[in-house]
Amino acid sequence: MSLRPRIRELSVLGFCLVAALLSWPEPVAAQSYPAKPIRLIIPFGAGGITDVSGRLVAQYLGEELKQQVIVDNKPGAGGSIAAQSLAQAQPDGYTLMLGTVGTQVVNKMLYRRLNYDPAALTPVSLVSNSPYVMAAAGIDGVDNLQTLVKYAKSHPGALNFGSAGNGSSPHLGIELFKLTTKTNIVHVAFKSGAEAVNAAIGGQVQLVIDAIPVIQPQAKAGRLKMLAIAASTRNAAAPDVATSAEQGLAEFQIGSWNALVGPPGLSKDHVKVLGEALARALKRPNLAKRLADMGIETMPSGVAAYDAHVRSETGKWAKVIQAAGTQLD
What we know:
By secondary structure, this protein is α/β, with parallel strands linked by helices.
């Protein structure tokens, strides 16, 4: 038999083999993710602003991924219990967490012995932010931040503010206000934001700061007076309330922000799938409206935006915590 036909036969066979390899489907794991429901850990209890926004995001993210996203509330220790659970999870893309300023930034400054490393968690994207509102009760002549500062400076140590506990975001928010304005206001810690608000209504404290959905109903009922949105731009849910920036206190900005994060070692492929699905979900008009109605704003997508935000927040809160001398263990 001549070699020429044999060589031609082998060449055709080789071409077919290469073509078959090029058309071979991707590995099943990469091709089908997610192939089962995803667990989203929420680091606070049901009913709070983090839980409410997390459940909405879980619903629409699940629709984009075509898999159910199941919410799992794990409150306690400023979010550390939830973050530790995430840190110990398999990096297979089926366990995620709605991170907060606590879990991602301030816990490492507040706790001497933290049971997880925030920097080891895998960021996917920022999600949303709910700007806080400064509110007052029972302070004659105080209806904005400037009159509050004037009153506080002329009555040092006479005003009390209530928070959801030492190291909570409302606590740090008031400490930021004190540092920015050089005022002396006494902190009173409660077990929850709701207790702090009730204490203001009942006259035990004169100041509180919390998310718009927490403060606004009491303001509409005449029990609290909203002094400012602690942000640079007005909020659609409370358009008549001036911002801290408008009132000359641009550094006084705080809100309850969230980010989608995964366990250490989550693959770039999973991050990409999750990040793209989340970006699509946040652009859906129904979700955007439901969040906006509660004063919750969506944040820039992607890992780069997350990294920049965390760097900024780390520098900001390090100064506040150092000045306040806050330590939780």
